[in-house]
Every structure is written in structure tokens, then in C-alpha cells.
């Protein structure tokens, strides 16, 4: 069962700057530690169990597909789902016509020396960004996810993730199959896009295609291809509205 969004990945060129900038927006940011693939992260955890990952590459060049986003300044690159059982979820995707990659193991050493480990399974390259990747923890999940989930700006969790895709209709059957509930039609005139929305536990995921050759979704697809475009965050007591993209480092974040 896909239980909800596990985390959303934001690639940044400078981690210290990103931590300061997001803290200035009222987020509690926790240093996450280093991965053996040459990356380091900081995390923004929410009370709904999801988190934002601010990820920096520590090497001048990397074959990792997320590294390419730095050429356009970084930003939203991918998203991951919480699951119950990895093999069962891989079989669910297979029945929906998508063969996920064989699980790969990854670790992270926290600043306090605790070593986390988990396995990941990614969608095919031609579906990357349009479909989530999956994670299964080997060490306890509560050790990987930030315990600090209170934020001065009142954010409590993710309301919805908007994903830019070239053809939302082509993905509708897959998402309906793997989420286990009905997709609803969605039109976003503010983004000049249309598609559908589904829910995974407490979180919404919107798949939108450009309605024309101009507009923010069309621009995103030309520049970076399919992938996460924007995030709406629930807030309790905070001020609703879009956050300053100069401080989010170009990421469209809106408090609702």
C-alpha cells in the first residue's frame, strides 16, 4: 500500500545557504548528514510524516540524474512514496504496466554518527519524475525522518504536490491503479494546465499537462522535462499565500 508522500527532493547548489534561507521563511531545518554517493542533505519534517529534502552534491560532477538540475539552478527534482512492503508495491506497479528497477541500497550517516540504511526502487528512465520512487527502511524510519516537526510559520504538512508531465491522460490509468482510489479531473488556469488529481493517504498528487505551448508548465517541461513543479503546504496559524521564491531558491511553495 502506498501510504502517502515520504519526501520531496529539492536539489540546491549550496546547502548552508539553503538552510539559512528556509529558516528565514519560518521552517525548522535539521541537518541530515552525508550519503556515500557524494551528497549531503538537510531536512524539513512535518507532523503528517512527510518531509522536504534539501540535497547538495559534494562532487564537481556526478552521473546521478538529479545532478543535471543544477545547470538551471536546482529546485524540485523528484518525490518518494511511503510504503508497507516494497516487493508488493513493485508488483502493483507491474500490474499497472510499469516495471520498477531492482532495489538498490543506500545509507546516510547523520551528524551524530548514527548510520541509516534503506533500499530504493526507481521507475524507468522515461517515467522518471512523472512517477514516484519507493523507499523501504532497513533501520527504523523514525531515525531517518526529522523529529523536529514544529515550525514558526505554522506548516503542518503537505497538502498537494503538482507534477508537470507531457501527457497526463497517459498516466491516469497507472496512478488510479497504484493509489487505489478514483482520479478526479483537474484544471489549473493559473498554471495553464489540465489533468487529474489523486490522493495517497493525507497527500494529494496533481498530474498536469500544459494546455498550450506557453505557460509555467510548458516552460518547466522544455527546461527540465517531467517532474515535480510546485508544492502546497498546510499551515496552522501561518499566513496563506506563495512564499518568496528568492528564499525558496526558485521552488514554488504556497501555504494554504
- Summed up, the helix count is 5
**What general outline do the C-alpha atoms trace?**
globular
Task: Identify the CATH architecture of the largest domain.
Answer: Roll
The portion of residues assigned to helices is 10-25%
Strand order of the largest sheet: 2-3-4-1-5-8-7-6
The fraction of residues in strands falls at 35-45%
Helix-strand makeup class: alpha+beta
How many separate structural domains? 2
Low-pLDDT residue spans: none
- CATH first level of the largest domain: which class? Alpha Beta
SSE order: EHEEEEHEEEHEHEEEHEEE
Mean pLDDT: 96
Radius of gyration: 17 Å
Q: Largest sheet, described in full?
A: 8 strands, mixed
Name the descriptors:
40% strand, alpha+beta, 256 residues, 2,3-Dihydroxybiphenyl 1,2-Dioxygenase, domain 1, seven-stranded mixed sheet, single chain, 2 domains
3D structure, described in words:
By secondary structure, the chain is α+β, with helices and mostly antiparallel strands. The protein has two domains: 2-144, 2,3-Dihydroxybiphenyl 1,2-Dioxygenase, domain 1 (Roll); 155-255, 2,3-Dihydroxybiphenyl 1,2-Dioxygenase, domain 1, CATH 3.10.180.10. It has five helices and 15 strands. The chain has helices at 15-24, 86-95, 141-144, 168-179, 216-224; strands at residues 2-11, 30-35, 39-45, 51-57, 75-83, 104-109, 115-121, 133-137, 155-164, 184-188, 193-200, 203-210, 227-235, 241-242, 253-255. The strands form two sheets. Strands 2-3-4-1-5-8-7-6 form an eight-stranded mixed β-sheet. Strands 10-11-12-9-13-15-14 form a seven-stranded mixed β-sheet. A hairpin with a 3-residue loop joins strand 2 and strand 3. 38% of the residues are buried.
Amino acid at each position: 500500500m502506498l501510504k502517502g508522500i515520504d519526501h520531496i527532493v529539492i536539489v540546491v547548489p549550496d546547502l548552508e545557504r539553503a538552510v539559512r534561507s528556509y529558516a528565514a521563511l519560518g521552517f525548522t531545518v535539521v541537518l541530515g548528514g552525508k550519503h556515500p554517493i557524494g551528497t549531503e542533505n538537510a531536512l524539513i519534517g512535518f507532523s503528517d510524516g512527510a518531509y522536504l529534502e534539501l540535497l547538495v552534491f559534494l562532487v564537481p560532477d556526478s552521473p546521478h540524474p538529479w545532478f543535471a538540475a543544477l545547470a538551471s539552478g536546482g529546485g524540485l527534482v523528484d518525490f518518494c512514496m511511503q510504503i508497507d512492503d516494497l516487493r508488493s508495491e513493485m508488483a502493483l506497479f507491474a500490474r499497472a504496466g510499469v516495471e520498477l528497477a531492482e532495489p538498490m541500497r543506500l545509507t546516510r550517516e547523520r551528524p551524530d554518527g548514527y548510520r541509516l540504511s534503506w533500499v530504493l526502487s526507481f521507475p524507468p528512465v522515461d517515467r522518471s519524475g512523472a512517477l514516484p520512487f519507493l523507499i523501504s527502511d532497513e533501520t527504523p524510519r523514525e531515525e531517518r525522518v526529522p523529529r523536529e516537526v514544529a515550525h514558526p510559520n505554522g506548516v503542518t504538512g503537505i497538502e498537494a504536490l503538482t507534477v508537470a508531465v507531457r501527457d497526463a491522460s497517459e498516466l491516469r490509468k497507472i496512478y488510479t491503479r497504484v493509489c487505489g482510489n478514483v482520479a478526479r479531473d483537474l484544471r489549473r488556469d493559473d498554471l495553464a494546465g489540465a489533468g487529474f488529481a489523486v490522493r495517497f493517504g493525507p497527500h494529494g498528487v496533481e498530474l498536469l499537462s500544459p494546455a498550450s505551448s506557453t505557460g509555467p508548465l510548458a516552460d518547466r517541461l522544455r527546461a527540465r522535462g517531467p517532474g515535480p513543479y510546485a508544492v502546497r503546504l498546510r499551515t496552522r496559524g501561518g499566513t496563506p499565500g506563495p512564499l518568496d521564491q528568492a528564499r525558496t531558491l526558485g521552488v514554488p511553495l504556497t501555504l494554504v
